Please model this.
Amino acid sequence: MLIKPRLDNLRIIGYYLGQIIIHIGLVMLIPIAFGFVIGEPNPAVDFFIGLEIALIAGLVLTKLCYTQKDPSWMQGMVVVSLAWLAAMFLGAIPLYLSGHWRGFLDACFDSMSGFATTGLVLVQDLDHLSFTHNLWRHLIMFIGGQGIVIIAISFFVKGLSGALKMYVGEAREEKILPNVINTARFMWLVGVIYLVLGTLVLAGIGLAEGLGLKKALFHGVCIFMAAFDTGGFAPNSQNVMYYHSFIFEIATIVIMVLGALNFHLHYHIWTGNRREIYRNIETVTLFVSIMVTFLVTAVGLKHSGIYPQSLVLFRKGFYQLVSGHTGTGFQTIYARHFIADWSSLSAVGVLCAMALGGAVCSTTGAIKMLRIGIIFKTFVQDIKRIILPEKAMVVQKYHHIKTVFLEDKQARSALLITLAYILLYGFGALVGMYHGYPFLSSLFESTSAGANVGLSCGITGAHMPTVLKLTYILQMWVGRLEFISIFTLLGFFIAAIKGK
Amino acid sequence: MMLRGPRKKARLLFFVFTFIFFALYCSLGHAQPVSSSHLIDNAQRYDGRSVIYSGEVIGDIMPRGEYAWVNVHDGQQAIGIWLPRKLAETIIYTGNYKAKGDWIQIAGIFHRVCEEHGGELDIHATSLKKIQSGYFVSRAFNRSRMNKAVILLAVLGCVWILRHLIKT
Model:
């Protein structure tokens, strides 16, 4: 029997949602300060309005719903899924006020794309967008990649059990440190240290390649946030093509891969356990997967003859492959060329890479390497069961931080999430085809949205149908939170309507 | 063969003029600027051919030795232009939030997959003509938006006071 949520349930959800909204609003202090410092007062006012709306909403919610209780699992999940929607609306306010988006829906699309670290864009005349708004576009990627709720956990959640429930709700399954609050803070530490180092490296390259000092720093910080948090936005409309620099591409490849690795693995590398890189099922699966999907892409490119020189084939093919696999979405080719110039085989290679994604507890989306590794091990185990004598005890192990015995429940969970992602990709492809786009293009764009990648073959644009925009927003939201929180929210609404 | 009679002369003149007309028409046809979307969508057709492309210089001029990269946006998409540094020096304004970039017309060779630049789609410019000079964009302070912000600030203040009043 479904039980109708009580007022107490709503109060807990409202209180924690209000807290997160306040914290999202406070992040807008960064672009406000930046805008005034660099002499862009109008954009700064846009963010001031966004901050005020966030604070009003947050203060009203936290006052009306004040509670000292910790959220339950269900409440924690509902808070997380609603927090991401709230972030989308709040993040879209300053973008919409800039006048560079055709409507509020388009601004919401880019806001969700940023927070979910996707990278698909509907912005108009990006090259004349203010530096303040541009910084915000990249900052929301950094926040979203680290985790919106991670901010909240790091700063305001006092109860450990409440923190854990929201942490898990944001598609994080692993605790790096015994305490989930310390885990959240460690993830911020990793992000900030890499931010400083990565910005310096990219700014140095930018300087060497002809950018001025201020521009080099600005591009460095923006591209780092988009690369490490596997987002894929860039300050200019040409994306990474803007820089015309091979060394810049190499640097972004390194940062993208760092972003696609498990934060847990970063912790072990930092604490001196470098062997974990070679032993971990995720890094091994990621390596094999990149090699296999690149082979498919390279064969397709060679067959099409588009890049006669091997080095050029590698530079273009490998970059797009890594960009897709890590879920970043940086492009070094024009969107239309994925379908028009590349062969179907090479487009499918990148599509498969996008669908697979990076590591769990990283900034990437999609199915993820741990699940792929577990599914592969399950197949091996089943084959062994068939080959070996019936009385033989078949035990399968894998190494992920520690050695783990493979159990049926892990295999079932991995397969269920994989199936859910495949259905999500298929759903978007069907909507695309309904609107007249070809099968491969529809599937490519849908996978890019659902897996939070951001590579585009040309469908995404301000001109595309509203239904498709809404579909991609839904896919980005669901894909980023990995279903469970969204299903819980659905269940909550059903219980509110049908429950007794 | 010797031409005899006014009719044959007239026919010859007709063919000569027709040939000159088509030659001029074709050359003028190529002299028309091509849009970025057309170039990108028909990259194979234009590969290695001379093109004329015009648009606004955006972002930065990135010097590389004797040459420089500029990115030119024609209102549809932007394409990278590789040009001698001396030509790049004629560009004063580049487009960004605070400036409208120079609108230039360049003639050069279009490459679908440039071997010299790691497979980039680019144009190697041989000549550059400034069609329209850029300018700084002066943006007046938006008072109406500021007024909205002040109203919201008042609402926020009321909410803040009410929170404390209800608490006490």
Notes: The first strand of chain A starts at residue 397 and ends at 400.
